[in-house]
Structure formats: structure tokens, C-alpha cells
Structure prediction request, 319 residues.
Amino acid sequence: MKAIFKILFFVLLWFGCENSTKSQNVHGCLDSAACNYNMNANIDNNSCIYYTDCNDECGGDATFDQCGVCGGNGVDLDQDGVCDDLDDCIGYVDDCGICNGNGTDLDNDGICDYIDDCVGEYDDCGECNGLGVDIDEDGICDDLDDCIDVNSNEICDNIENGCIDEYGIFIDTDLDGICDLMDECPLDSNNDLDDDNICDNEDDCIGEYDDCGICNGNGTDNNNNGICDDEEGCQSFNFLECTSAPECDWNFSINMCQDVEIDCEDLTYSECFSNSQCEWDSDDNECDDYEIDCEDFSFSECQLQPECEWDYEDNECDD
Prediction:
């Protein structure tokens, strides 16, 4: 019996030692800076991972989409910070509130120009962009008013203020119907036509300078970079215009339209006609780069082309 107990004792001792040895060999990541660190491991198996994805999963591959959703598939094509599935306008809203439209509101009165009864301002006489004044606010335009009475004392100001000279002649140098003593612009019959508080006889520009610095011009600089839109090509286009023009490409990193270099010689007949940088050469039956012929331009057209200048001696536009 003792022999049997001895045998059982040694068997239990053998298996106990074997299991104890096995429990000490734990493979895993030993670096506590890793996100998969195993505090129970004692053998490094080079499995350490040091990054987590946006779901905080160690070694995961989930990323943020353009809408800031982890693991999502949302896009924000116009990069305005609003996901396209929620965006009221994917692109550009014009002055009239139309998505990717071309409406304008030049006088900033909240009414689109194409439906505005007056793009500008009504004068005192109710005429759009007119010159009429009603200085005494009696409802009669001054050029038709027989008695202008600003102080409402029932005495005509031209008599009260000395607008009649010693010979009984009405003193009105610019013949605008307003006495010189009361005329803010006594030498300007239009009485400051553009309403810029500068009498027209002293005004460098009777009207407005456009974005390119030309008096009463129509040049624009939509991106406010100091370069006229007609001189910079694609850079003046909005998102929709840019993506519709083959010679342009939208740069999402700077949120601006840019020119694409076109090799006209590689274009077919139909492609050549659809590209503003090229023209079809019927003699050689091939597509060539578009060249401006300044001699064909009128004076006003010549002024708008940076490649051309007006020859006053020959009275024509030259390169």
C-alpha cells in the first residue's frame, strides 16, 4: 500500500511541476506604450501595435469621412463644411440666393437685378437713377418748382436768399434751375450725376469704377485677388462653371478653379471647337492654339485686351 501511495505522490509532483513551467511562458507585447500591451506576457513576440483608429480600436483601419464621421462614407464636394446629403447647395449661391446661378444684385437692395424695377436709386422726383432734386420736399422737382422754399416760411428762397441780381436776372451759372447760392454744384448742371458727393466738373469718374479700376467698365474680380477675371481665365469661375469647362479644373485644396494646360494639336475637330483656348485651322486640317488678332478689335474692345493697345496715330488696335 505504501508503494502505491509513493507512486501516486511522484505522479502528482511530476504533473504539477510541468504545469507550473508551462504557465510561466506567456507570449505577447511587452511594451507598455503599445495599445496591445499584455501585462501577463513574459516573452516578446514582436506583436506590439502603437496606433488606434478613430473608433479607438487598436490597429484598426476605420477613418473619418469628409463629414467627420468615423467609418462613414459621407462626402462634402464643395468643402463648405456641410455634408452633401444635408447641403442645400452643393456649389455656390449667387447674389439672388440661387444655387450655382448667375444672378446679380448690383445695388444691394435685396432684389435680383432681372426683376428689379430700378437697379440703382430713385431720385427725389421718383426717377430711377435720375438727377432730379426736390430740396424743399414739396413734391415738385426743383427744375419745375416756381418757388423753392426750404425753410417753409412761404417766401421763395430765390428772393429771400438773393438769387436775383440787381438787374432782376436769376443767378444760375450752370442753368440747372437752381440758384447758385443754393446749388451744391453751381458749375455742374447734372448736380453730381453719380451721387458720389463730388461735383461732375471736378469728378475723375462720373459713374463707378469697376473691379479692374476702369470708369464705368464692366470688369469683374470675383475672387478679389486684384486681377481682372478676363485676364485670369479659369480662376474667376465658380464651382459649377469650372467643372463644366474642359480647360479648367477645380482645386479642392485651395477651393479655387485653375487653368488646365491644353495641347490643341491633340484635339479632334469637335473637341477643338468646344475649347476656348483652341481654334481649327482649315488649311492644315488640324487644331491650333487660339491667337488674338488685335487689328480686328474696336477701340472699346481693344481696351479690354491686355495683349493689345490702341495706336492713336493709325487709329487702330495693334499687338
Notes: The two ends are 124 Å apart (CA to CA). Residues 265-318 form one domain. The beta strands are 27-28, 43-44, 248-251, 256-259, 278-281, 286-289, 309-311, 316-318. The mean pLDDT is 81.
